[in-house]
Amino acid sequence: MRKFFITTSLIAASVTMAGTASAKIATGSNVSDMTVTDSNGKTHNLSDFAGKRVVLEWTNEGCPYVKKHYNTNNMQDTQKMATANDDTVWLSIISSAPGKQGYKSGAEANATAEKYDAAPTAIVLDPSGAMGRTFAAKTTPHMYVIDENQTLVYQGAIDDNRSANPATVKGAKNYVKAALADMDAGRAVVESETAPYGCSVKYGS
Q1: Domain range holding 121?
Q2: How large a percentage of the chain has pLDDT more than 90?
Q3: What pTM value is reported for the model?
């Protein structure tokens, strides 16, 4: 499994630091201006991924909706499909604040990824909630797809069944897979925006 750990250090110019997510980024917007720092102190920017697709997944291990997708391997299968080639980066993001459900240290996030055989390119630790608020991430999971030109082409739910019941994964439409398939076919993403569902992101005050 390819992964490295990054913690957010500076994310965009305007971030609403209230307890709720800020206004969402419009689908079709450029989202390249985001700086993060990995566990070794190396700084990265989303602009470093120009020419690649980027999938963002907000996650919280304690959330039953996240468990639905991990216990059935739906999220891992989607991760592995997306990153089968080197043209796609998958970032799993933990925006839970310290003391809140789902908060993880780097070592804990690593252990969780190993436990579930998860396959993100990186796990972003966002305890301040800055990255989550910039994207207006509301739920776990909440999914975003950014194309090679660093344009946001999809945001919303992982699939079209809003139940927490793991049995509902089978037969549900996976919006992330559909968006990537549209991109592979050279067409615009047909369903570019859906309503996210899941647990609320556990931001701090």
Answers
A1: 4-198
A2: 69
A3: 0.89
